[in-house]
């Protein structure tokens, strides 16, 4: 429903929605060149939208991925693809990158995510022989003297030069530094993680149960110059071990999901083994392992060797600010103030905490908006997210999305939704239940009501500053027009027109259910 | 013809055109992702362009809409659709919004336009019992104390709470405020009005004759993520009452114009009546009226009940500045400085006033340019407008549009135009007469001469800072090259090359006719 | 290979690549709305990429143009077209403009290029009777007093007014100014020249041998609203004299290359001769010559009349800074500070000078990056260039292009290249030899090794700030991940994972060949 994303903020602060519309000038600049995509794809949507379930599942050693049917029409119209990923306990989602940026919402569980921003420094560093104390000392040294300290240290080791200078530094590395890598982000239920196009990432489930996330890829994003599929370029792993189809999925598809299937190998496997070995200065045997042609574990593997040893700060869940300070020091050590902007960009934000809701209607529910004003990396991703929770029988106010499509995923409960096209045709009228997804196209009108168990959803929108226009209620379209215009337009009395305009008073986005339901609702409320 | 839009300014100020080219860097950023559209659509234009007349007409109770054939090829190439709207005296064009931004030029008449910017405050407010004096007092109060004054006043009314807090505020509203809505803009002949994508608007003809406007929709705009048609989402009104086709229009079209036709209802009609009634807190009977399934008046209705009561300042035509100050007070009252940028954006500008012409050639004519530097909302719309008037037999200098297509509509008189494609092929050679439209595609060369009655036009361009390059005259392409290069290129003498370069001296954009015509012309001049 | 463009800089300065990633936020904004194009075009690329040779050649009087087959799939995927232009000694490439921006690399020779930026002042001026001394004096005067000095001078000549004011100024022009035009840029081997969309340009070979350039047109650029072909709009010249086809090129093509063929005339030829003559105030006979219908010299003509007389500073190769100061004075004279930004924009930069290399590996080679940070006009063009030189058997590090396609043209030597798609399929595995071109699509992985004669190339990328991600080596994807993640991902020991990460030590982009080759290489080095 995208639903009041911004409307929301406005209400809580007793300001107008307009403060959130201001970035319109900018955000339109940032919008996707989506016209190309929408070209013909949204035509089909005029006929019928249906609640989507995943149609294809790819099993791996320690988890599975379920793909939503991207040929359904509504996902193509929105220019997105979607998948639900389940990582079993101690499972590792192997590193890959895509030509499209993506946003993922953690539906359940916790884990560690490493997003590698190409060109950024390895700010988590561990020296081999050094004690913790020495590490800190070294850290201070680097903080003061940049990399010079490190180099001085290395050169003082006075190693023999066997194969030229680069060999020396390699040896030096191998001995003084046990490992170094880019920062690691911890995630848990309710977190949104942003992954830019072309940036590889991996995920490790270090929690007690399964880690489940719903991911949406914005394939019509300007950052994607390739084609209208979300391709995964895997840096590791072999052919996927098994694949089960659902619902009579045809075999002739050439979509990405297909590519993600049985014919897919990691990109290293495409290189000549000898050339790869030489380029990496490793043995042919190691290169062959990297290519993983005989690896049957699939895309999600079980971590062996007594768990994954990840270097990171001691506290269970450090704040991003803390991590950024650490990264900052590293970046500063690189003698480079500029790169902090991107290298230190926060990639995660929690949208489930009720205390952080942007809109809250006591008898209706709440909505949390995550746009580029809250998480600047979304300016790059050009997407935004809404998280909504509605009480039983509460009403989702009629509205339309001004500048974005919305892919709505139900995380719990259910809602009855109606979506209306430009001809006034009802293209969707049905229930959206937990695990299902539906697209509400730009400009289409939507109205809904939560089921008896309430309704919770996460909505992925194809603009980093998605806006919507409520039809009734506070700051709505009808409220903005003179009562006399409405009276003449609808052929009603002026008094009726005023009731239409002001019937919902100051309510916004999520309306309380009718009085009869209210007692039940209050009883049901936590 | 887009025609020297900017060139123009340069001349008058004796500066170069370059000051207008500077925003190139920026404006390219803002350009439409038009490549998607242009993909194949402009191929057809290589064969032949013709002067377009409307091909389809939809009649309503108090006016009619004439659509230009969007399947002609040239409009598709430019990525625009066009329609001419006629509203009879006291007619009301019902509120609707579109997935595309649009610009309209008022060819004739006057009226009131209400553009609702979703999320902006209702800055025109009228309290029920208050006299004019009280209103002003209240206005001052709000100006000083923000909305707090209003709320204090409401709460002091001490109403009984029947159905909870929101009910109270609704009642309070109904009694203290007779009506409130967003600002209303008056328009008259020669005005350009900009309507952003997703923003609903309505128009009332409060003049003495018909109100006629030509509207162009930029469907390939980045703001449109939906598809390559300009869809109208109507907020009110029923099925259109009648429709007449012209010129053998085929029945199989699935274009927007079709959708705007007999099968179209307003978006509220697509919702379940009961759910709609509940969401608005109105009776089922009222909801049914809103859905308008039995309304046969069409899209333009006759205002009844003794005219439209519109709350607005006393002066007939207030300046936008005055209106903005008013709105400003309201916005400021909302305790929010940021939202003024968009909410207060001027949406109208007059381009017909001869005193405001940017280019004036005494014996040739004048051009008025309206780009985003003059009307900032055009940055959002990504379109611009030229208004031109040529004397009889004056010459439209040969030129090409650098960064935009131009849809040229003749408002009076006629001109002979020639348009030339990349192969040097003349794709258009004919007259453009009052009421006709022709597209001059980006990069295509154009040259013309006004007819015996002169020529007046308005040109809609698909960039908010459209530029063109004159081939000869001041600041022209040939002027910018060494005479010796031209001599060798054209195989002429150096002296001939200099005549080619300097033949038109300092003339720019509109050239005076040849001497023989001049006497007539001077006689004809006002 | 696009090849480490930016990576490079990072290394040499011992900073991270990140400083070069920062403009990501901005550059994505500037990216092409390429989704439209890529739509289906890149699908074909999954099957096979091949090294391209020109397939069609158009001969002219003093040179010829060779077009690369734009229907091959890989050029369409990248959204570019390419041509190699050869201008014989004293040949003149006639002025033309295009709907697409382009970048050209001078492979061989030297010449003069005039790019006319529409609307910018003619800053190279020569008065007819004035001696050099007078010219300088006049220049000073203009510098001080703007154009007023010039006008004062003209009016003091007290000419008779025959046909009104503009006639006077024309005469005045003809007598006081022998010629004036926009600046001329000298180019030589290794220069890159940027030509914005819609800006006409001409080239004169004033060197001792042939001038050869490879040009790439970015047809999917946002600046192009027309269609997915790079159309040439020629301002002069006639039908091309001859055309030879190669490799069974079919006759049915309707592509631009076709249009550039025998059916093409200059745009002036498309106008009515009489109207053209009148618009230019030249004789019908001169107009007919401009239209060039009988001109058989083609697109590149031989300069006659004792060479081309070009007004310009005395020094053989003035710096752009010097030229810009000159232009500056002119622009300032126009009383206009703003337009300097675009009018004075540098359009040329040398990328062949080894001393200017951004990356240099003693045993490997060097890369010079030209992006919008070095040449700001590239922000407008939305392209960038890499120039690379590799020693024999050196290794092109495995990497992928993050945000751009790369069209790689081999200028000398050869390399074995492997390109891998998302499924791990090797879509290209072959040699790229001098004169051949290959496209490395966005996200696709590439790895290569130079042949026995080394390898030199120029890579045109479809982003003004193209970035790539190395897979191994310094600042690489694998280096950014914890060794334990790699160990589990690849199923190797932790020690092997560390070798994979650190095997190439601090090497970046171009790796030295294996030890066995090194002696040869050192011997071969200059």
User: What's the end-to-end separation of chain A, in Å?
Assistant: 24 Å
The CATH H-level superfamily of the largest domain in chain A is: Jelly Rolls
Computed structural class of chain A: alpha+beta
Radius of gyration from the alpha-carbon trace of chain A, in angstroms: 26 Å
Globally, the shape of chain A reads elongated
Query: Which spans of chain A have pLDDT < 50 for at least 5 consecutive residues?
Result: 1-40, 130-171, 241-262, 321-339, 517-526
Which assembly state applies to the chains in this document? homotrimer
Biggest interface goes to:
A-B, 104 and 111 residues
CATH architecture classification name of the largest domain in chain A: Sandwich
Signal peptide (chains A, B, C): 1-36
Biased composition (Basic and acidic residues) (chains A, B, C): 139-157, 167-177
Pfam families (chains A, B, C): Cupin_1 (PF00190)
Keywords (chains A, B, C): Disulfide bond, Seed storage protein, Signal, Storage protein
């Amino acid at each position: 429903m995208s639903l009041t994303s911004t409307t929301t903020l406005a209400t809580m602060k007793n300001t107008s929605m307009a403060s959130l519309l201001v970035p319109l000038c900018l955000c339109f600049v940032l919008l996707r060149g989506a016209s190309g995509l929408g070209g013909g794809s949204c035509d089909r949507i005029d006929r019928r939208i249906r609640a989507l379930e995943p149609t294809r599942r790819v099993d791996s050693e320690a988890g599975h991925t379920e793909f939503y049917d991207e040929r359904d029409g509504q996902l193509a119209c929105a220019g997105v693809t979607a998948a639900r990923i389940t990582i079993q306990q101690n499972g590792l989602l192997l590193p890959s990158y895509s030509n499209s940026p993506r946003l993922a919402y953690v539906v359940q569980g916790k884990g560690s995510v490493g997003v590698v921003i190409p060109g950024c420094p390895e700010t988590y560093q561990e020296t081999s022989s050094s004690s913790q104390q020495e590490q800190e000392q070294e850290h201070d040294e680097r903080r003061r003297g940049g990399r010079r300290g490190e180099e001085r240290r290395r050169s003082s080791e006075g190693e023999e030069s066997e194969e030229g200078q680069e060999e020396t530094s390699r040896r030096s590395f191998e001995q003084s530094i046990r490992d170094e890598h880019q920062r690691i982000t911890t995630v848990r239920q309710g977190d949104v993680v942003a992954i830019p196009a072309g940036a590889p990432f991996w995920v490790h489930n270090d929690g007690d149960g399964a880690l489940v996330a719903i991911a949406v890829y914005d394939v019509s994003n300007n950052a994607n110059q390739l084609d209208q599929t979300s391709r995964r370029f895997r840096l590791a792993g072999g052919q996927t071990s098994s694949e089960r189809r659902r619902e009579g999925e045809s075999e002739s598809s050439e979509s990405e999901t297909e590519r993600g299937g049985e014919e897919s190998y990691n990109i290293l496997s495409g290189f000549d083994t000898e050339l790869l070995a030489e380029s990496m200065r490793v043995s042919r045997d190691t290169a062959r392992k990297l290519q993983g042609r005989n690896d049957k574990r699939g895309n999600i593997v079980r971590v062996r060797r007594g768990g994954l040893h990840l270097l990171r700060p001691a506290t269970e869940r450090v704040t991003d600010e803390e991590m950024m300070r650490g990264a900052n020091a590293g970046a500063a050590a690189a003698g480079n103030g500029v790169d902090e902007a991107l290298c230190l960009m926060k990639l995660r934000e929690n949208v489930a905490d009720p205390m952080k809701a942007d809109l809250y209607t006591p008898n209706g529910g709440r909505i949390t908006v995550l746009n580029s004003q809250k998480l600047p990396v979304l300016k790059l991703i050009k997407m935004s997210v809404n998280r909504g929770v509605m009480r039983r029988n509460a009403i989702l106010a009629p509205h339309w999305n001004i500048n974005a499509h919305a892919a709505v995923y139900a995380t719990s409960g259910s809602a009855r939704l109606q979506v209306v096209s430009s001809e006034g045709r009802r293209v969707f009228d049905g229930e959206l239940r937990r695990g299902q997804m539906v697209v509400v196209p730009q400009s289409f009108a939507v109205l809904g009501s939560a089921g008896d168990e309430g309704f919770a959803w996460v909505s992925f929108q194809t603009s980093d500053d998605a806006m919507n226009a409520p039809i009734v209620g506070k700051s709505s379209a009808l409220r903005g027009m003179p009562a006399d215009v409405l009276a003449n337009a609808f052929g009603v009395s002026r008094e009726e027109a005023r009731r239409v305009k002001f019937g919902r008073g100051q309510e916004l986005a999520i309306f309380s259910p009718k009085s009869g339901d209210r007692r039940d609702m209050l009883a049901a409320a936590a």
